Amino acid sequence: MSLRIGTRGSPLALWQARAVEQAIRAAGGPPCELAVIRTTGDRLATRDLSAIGGKRLFVKEIEEALLDGGIHLAVHSAKDLPAELPPGLVIGAVLPREDPHDAVVLPRGSRGEGSGGALLAALGGAPRVGTGSVRRVAQLARTVPRARFQSIRGNVETRLRKLDAGDCDALVLAAAGLVRLGLGERANARLTADECLPAPGQGIVAIEIRESDERTRSVLDRIDDCAAGVALAAERALVRALGGDCRVPIGALAVQEADGVALDAVVASLDGRRRLRRQARGPADTAAALGADLASRMLADGAEEILAPHRSPR
Question: Catalytic pick from 80, 99, 213, 245?
Answer without folding.
Answer: 80
